[in-house]
Amino acid sequence: MKLVLLSGGSGKRLWPLSNDARSKQFLKVLENDEDHMVSMVQRVWGQIQSNNLGDSSYIATSKSQIEMMHSQIGTDVPLIIEPERRDTFAAIALAATFLYSFKGVNLDEVVAILPVDPYVENHFFESVKQLEDVLHSSGADLALIGVRPTYPSSKYGYIIPEVEDSSLSVYQKVSRFREKPTEQQAEDLIKEQALWNCGVFAFKLGYVIQLLEQKGLSIQYEELAKQYRSLPQISFDYEVVEKAANIVVLPYEGYWKDLGTWNTLTEEMKNKQIGWGTISEDCVNTHLINELDIPVSILGLSNVVVAVSPDGILVTDKSASPRIKDFINYDQGPMYEERQWGWHRILDDQSYEDGRCVLTKRVCIKSGKNLSYQLHSNREEVWTIVKGEGEFVQNGNFMQVNAGNVLHIPMKTLHSVRAVSELEIIVVQTGVEAATNQVVEIYTTWDEVTEHCIKL
């Protein structure tokens, strides 16, 4: 069995920590058994490895998330790259063609699809492994996992099984689906033995490949990637699952939660405060997550989340927090990005009446890592080294740099730096607002830079 984890969403419901460059699954707000802060994707990937599924697993993600994924779980994890976000039907179609035409997976092989960010116990993955046997023994087109509800939730979709089959085997035939009912409707569904739809299902690879052929879509990975923008932007549930005639569900009894909103995420945080600030003692069920170097004080407020990042500040009642996605429409790019080599945070971004633009950011390069050998077509930069030491090269000229050094990099000047110890740099980038800036990368590794660029 092959396992494909879907990692494509932007996670706007966890703004301001999540943005287009740092989706919710990358937020390091959970704690592992060693009390280290980890993200959802780090937690799930660790569970996959501990359940001996790592060698048969892939992560489907967008180009914008490659560096973040490599930074958090390593460069050895196989990725299936989506050219852009187009919902789960397109992502699963591309993953199927990747397995079929690029990896040579047999059409009879079972493929299980799993979100990259469920909050589950380890034994959940035993149910994932069971999907292969369920699919073979049932002869169904699709085999799903449904979670036994612990309360009538209006936040989840429901799978309603044919109850008369419940005593025949470990799985049940699916009767119908219901998406996000009211709490009263959810109570009635639970009386029908309905299950929460946790977005986990399996199929034989040939099932999706045949479906793509019927739709006139390419079954070759590289060709489908070229056509990706023309694929329907719709979920796999709506396009395939709810139209399939022969579906079974495997009930799961255990802990499962979707950490997609601030109120559900904070329920699983061990600490009520991350970052600098104060929560007064009369606050009840209040959480503070602060990524900035300024203090935040919360006094006398209960059932509240305060989240602070370079992208903005959120103050919300926990019950209202899911509504944030309806309010976030700010015309700005990500103010904080995590990269394979480190991270950078935008401190200031200004445009002036004379047409000049000035961008100031703080850049951290991890020890042993380097920036690519690159040039800016229409921006010049001034770097002030504020921490650490490194090796700097500009147009082939090499020099050692340390905290306190100031470097001027004119437009169209090739440059790179490698951190001997962790480097922090204040970068001031200037140019003309109307002039589009292009970043031209020549080499990415320091070995290439030293071989081809450094003049001894």
Give your account of this protein's structure.
Residues 339-436 form the Mannose-6-phosphate isomerase type II C-terminal domain. Residues 4-270 form the Nucleotidyl transferase domain. The chain is of the alpha+beta class and 456 residues long. Helices cover 20% and strands 36% of the residues. The strands form eight sheets. Strands 20-21-22-29-24-27 form a six-stranded antiparallel sheet. A hairpin with a 2-residue loop joins β20 and β21. The chain is built from ten helices and 30 strands. The protein folds into three domains: 2-258, Spore Coat Polysaccharide Biosynthesis Protein SpsA, Chain A, CATH 3.90.550; 270-326, no CATH class; 341-452, Sandwich (Jelly Rolls).
What descriptive keywords fit this protein?
456 residues, Spore Coat Polysaccharide Biosynthesis Protein SpsA, Chain A, Mannose-6P_isomerase_type2, NTP_transferase_dom, Jelly Rolls, alpha+beta, 5-stranded mixed beta barrel, Man6P_isomerase-2_C, mannose-1-phosphate guanylyltransferase (GTP) activity, 3 domains, 6-stranded antiparallel sheet
Question: What is the number of domains?
Answer: 3
| Secondary-structure arrangement, i.e. CATH architecture of the largest domain | Alpha-Beta Complex
Q: Kindly estimate the percentage of residues that lie in beta strands according to DSSP.
A: 35-45%
Question: What is the approximate shape?
Answer: globular
Name the average pLDDT: 91
Please write the CATH class name of the largest domain.
Alpha Beta
CATH topology annotation of the largest domain:
Spore Coat Polysaccharide Biosynthesis Protein SpsA, Chain A
- Distance N to C terminus: 53 Å
Poorly predicted runs are: none
Radius of gyration: 25 Å
Strand order of the largest sheet: 20-21-22-29-24-27
Fraction in helix: 10-25%
Give the number of helices.
Answer: 10
Look at the helices and sheets and give the structural class.
Answer: alpha+beta
Number of strands: 30
The biggest beta sheet reads:
6 strands, antiparallel
Find the CATH superfamily of the largest domain.
Spore Coat Polysaccharide Biosynthesis Protein SpsA, Chain A
Domain Nucleotidyl transferase: 4-270
GO molecular function, one term: mannose-1-phosphate guanylyltransferase (GTP) activity
Pfam family, one: NTP_transferase
Domain Mannose-6-phosphate isomerase type II C-terminal: 339-436
